Records
---
Amino acid sequence: MRAAPIDAVLLVSFGGPEEPDDVVPFLENVTRGRGIPRERLAEVGQHYFLFGGRSPINDQCRALKAELEEDLRLNGPNLPVYWGNRNWDPYLPDTLARMRDAGVRRAACLFTSAYSSYSGCRQYRENLADALAEVGEGAPELVRLPHYFNRPGFVAPFVDETAAALERLPAGSRMVFVTHSVPEAMNDASGPEGGRYVAEHRDVAATVAREVAARTGRDAGWDLVYCSRSGPPSQPWLEPDVNDHLAALADQGVRGVAVVPIGFVSDHMEVLYDLDTEARATADRLGLAFTRVATPGIDPRFVRMAGDLVRERVTADEGDEHGERGEGAAPAAAGDVGPAELTGSLGPIWGNCPAGCCRNLRGDRPAVCGAD
């Protein structure tokens, strides 16, 4: 049976507290099932209280939703954009119920995570399956738009900002690319064949570093490091931690660092606290010049890229209807669009996920937008 046409976009995100009274309940949602005492959550919540108890992530999603709606209005297809979160209002089941009541039949999902991993992809797919089951009959069909880590619209803003940062830093400075740490086992299971989380980040870092060197004439050197570890000490997580790495660089005589948060679409709490607050304090203590590079946020190139993902999905569906493309064909890959120097080396990225992709190490759970 022919699939219904895409008639809406669903922005899928993590969520965050909007006022101090939200902080501990939000953290309870994030850590549900882990048995973490409320007192410990209140301690972790101090990071949020430093910023008035409000995470910036919801405001950033509101801004991206508005900008994407405007792009689709101007450049087509003129589709409504909905927004739902894993851990805070607007929750995914509530958003899907609104979509059902508005008559949405088939929606394209844009995740605010650019990379392959269980926590950044399959867990969202499981959350969406749970939400669809809760909404029940009449809920829309969902398809996933591809990860976009190697799209020029995601990479180019990092190139521009990193090049500008190095111009402000002393000679002998270095690029430090940062992403969220995950358990080593999660990286080993990421993608259909494993190791995809680190491979994708290294691909982006190498691409940015190469273009920055060509633009500035400074081969500053680079490293990939991690922040926001949250697991028990007995569980191996990806290392080195950004603060430990800054200390090692200072010992090596490095004079300054351009800290590039390539793991993050926008400046949310891991960026504001882990980098702007904690890592900057570490650099100040070590005497390192420090500049934190901006994330894409609502850079017009990033917004246009998000719109292009929707347009490519719609075009692919139209091709399917006319027998021109195979069922489930992915939208055009990063390597097919934009300047070649900004597309990396990993090639096309799938839309709906292949079987076994980013598997859940705790056991199989229902998931949508994929072959399993």
Note: Residues 152-292 form a domain with the Rossmann fold fold (CATH 3.40.50.1400).
---
Amino acid sequence: MPDKNLYSLFESRFPDDMTQTAFEGPDIARYSYADVHAASARIAYFLLQQGALPGDRVAVQVGKSVEAVILYLGCLRAGLVYLPLNTAYKAAEIEYFLTDASPALVVCDPASLESIRDIAATAGVKEVLTLDEAGKGSLMTGAVSFPGHFDTVVRTGDDLAAILYTSGTTGRSKGAMLTHNNLASNALSLHRAWHFEADDVLLHALPIFHVHGLFVALHCAFLNANKVIFLTRFDAKAVIENLPKATVFMGVPTFYVRLLAEATLTKDACRTMRLFTAGSAPLLEETFNAFSARTGHVILERYGMTEAGMITTNPYDGERKAGTVGFPLDNDVRIADEDGRILADGEIGILEIKGPNVFKGYWQMPEKTAAEFRPDGYFITGDMTQKGEDGYYRIVGRAKDLIISGGYNVYPKEIESFIDDMPGVAESAVVGRPDPDFGEAVVAFVVAADDDAGATLTAETVTAYIKEKLANFKVPKQVYIVEDLPRNTMGKVQKKLLRDRALADA
């Protein structure tokens, strides 16, 4: 059986001189490719020694560190399924993920060990290990005694490499199952489309618990054995200081807004750069034009999603148009109405895609998976799209009730379900409104219950309650206490009216 393990693909691209730098940065120790290869071997050995078997899930909620990246590579080498979790998730969210995914092992920050250990025990987890932002913890302590050579477990292309949870319209998150072939095909497509070369240097400031930072950015670098300047968090000043040492930078729109706020962002600071990309949320044309005028570089905007990685991209060679996401990568794409009728160019409809990058389905949700695919295998993205006369694709809206704040997907139903459970709340409705920094801000409209708890309900108490339950990026930036919610004749909440009110007030 030919080995399709994603790590084997990376290893085949590693440099002849393994002392070449893999990671360096102002807050980290330098790692060579030899260091990465040996450390991932030790971690692979250790994870299997802890009782995990190929195909088992490993849930990971840790801060950003090179060691966390190596943990991901170790999971690949051991044939385990990597399950990254946003570091902002709170206990109620973690409990759902562990119960749903049934991981064999969990790796968390030492500060979270006590609370996660109790949740993990109930979920049947074999062992909880720790890893902090400095790369220390029981994971590294346990792995250090194992050999630095490991025969990577053979995987088929259809075997799972990772599960990434996406928010759901019903409030229940869905685990998107990504195979080794899914990730490899998308990485190779991007590597080719964006002209990665042997002397490229990637400046990495993204989180590593989602597709953009972990798969898009790092996979492209690994395929060329490029050096990665690794920033443990986004800081505009630190990014600008390191730009002259780099050639490629990938960011979300919020990054570019904050970079433009720094006077030190100049053409000279960007003199070695060849590529800036933006994604995870729409890039405002104002930001696109301002960045070009200031730096002389035109941002390359692309479009993707958890279930398929990158789907379209503006051209590397050729015009990059503001407000567009370019052309399809190695996907078949079409635009259809809700009934699946294919629409003509110029018409707005729902983007449907098919290709080697499209995920295998949702973990333990066969009915949901079936509902999201057409009989001929096309996946229904839910994004309202238009193909212009110029051939460029434009994402013009969302069929699903989705908010994108700071590059993170937020489904109102999930937040509403927590607010509605709060004492003193009769019902709620959550919407997004435009925000110059985050793209969209979460706004909640809450109707107080006709009881003692409702009589004392305030915007502040709602915000405080949600902060205890959900990740910070899901916490409403503004809360309105209202007498009732506007409804149409069918009784459905008219969220457009709520969005209009939030926008007018903003």
Note: The mean pLDDT is 93.
---
Amino acid sequence: MSEAVTRTVTSPPGLLASLDPLLREWLPRQRWFAGKGRPVTGFALVSATELLPPTAKLGLYHLLVRAHQSLQPGHSGQEQPGDCYQLLIGVREALPPRLAPALIGHVSRGPLAGQTVYEALHDTRPAELLLEALRTRARIGGLRFERDPRREIRPGLVPRLMTAEQSNTSVVYGDTFILKLLRRIVPGINPDLELPLALAREGCPRVPPPTAWLVADPDDAPDPPPPAEPYVLGVLQPFVQGATDGWELALRELAKGQDFTAEARALGRATAEVHTALARALPTVTLGHTQLRTIVHGMTERLEAAVQAVPALRPYAAGLRSAFTALDDLAAEGGTWTAQRVHGDLHLGQCLRSPAKGPSPAPGSGGEWSLIDFEGEPARPLAERRMPQPAVRDVAGMLRSFDYAARSADPPQPEWAEHCRAAYCSGYAETAGRDPRTDPVLLRAYEIDKAVYEVVYEARHRPEWLPVPLAAVRRLASPDPT
């Protein structure tokens, strides 16, 4: 593939119709499918790009499809346009045994009749093609493979699919790069590309800088009409070799009875570095009573909905509500806060601890923590995820994560969480010049908002974990939580 290759492609008519019955069965089983519990009633094609012609030994299609679903289970007549998903569909006459887990199905009609289709990211050749397209800044149909010209991508790096993903899919190339492919796609600037690019311009070392990225311009899309902005489909970043994610590291240290406060303090410093760099790189705003009233209203609405959904919350509702009222009262008295771009979904699992350098490094010594996955909460609208917010929202998410780690131990160790929470806030203050605990009303409100979200999530998906956020709710509902 030559430098800056441009290739016009056409997809065979009837492609999506031939895949429809297979995708209806396969898509809802994927971990990243957001519409679970409601049957898929059909698909609309947003874009289809032929990356490898199916006349060869291996065919490869890139699809953006919108899944239509009924509003409620059992009401197939009430349909609504669902989420748009990015799919990479491989085509072979038959799958080798190593690709059996990737099977989507056997096509019985249409242009691919008689062929076997599968999730192509399990296969080496399609994964290699994506990296080569990024390396050469290819343009194939409506797909644009872009990269930072200052950063080199060596050819021939061996790909391997990561299996621990949840809402997206990642491929590692030779322990040098990691390509994160977004699954739920919306038009517009995705913060998972926007914020790391801004941090790279600021020279912030705590976030791996984007090396390349994939976007789509579905100009010929019949449904929906062409968006004003492109779709961001994936981001290639340096792979942090030998790193352990913060959640795994915390659980490991807990199991060994090891102190984690030095790591928590270092993570607090890293978080503050990222917040400080984001405040320099992107606009900040001042929140007064009008803006805070909107935030409090949203928190209160989420609480009321959660109380209806999870009866176990009812004994604590008044105490939780009073925390939101206290924040509104503080704003009414003239309190103001600074809002800026933030991570938006910060927890231990979004942090990577690289191996310490030197023969005998001290725990928590500098340059070891990285923050990743700036997409925010995927279920929230993109415009909301890109809004400036108080930095304490990220802090609250991390404090809740320490609590989760401590209560997942057997037996639970709430004192461990208290020490980590204090160390994290102290580390944050060392770099930011302000301690989140000096604004207890705002911090408590955001912690409650996060804990209420956790209660609803656990009640729906992991009932055995429900006692974890309920313990936090019990503490935070007190007039003087500690």
Note: The chain has a mean pLDDT of 90.
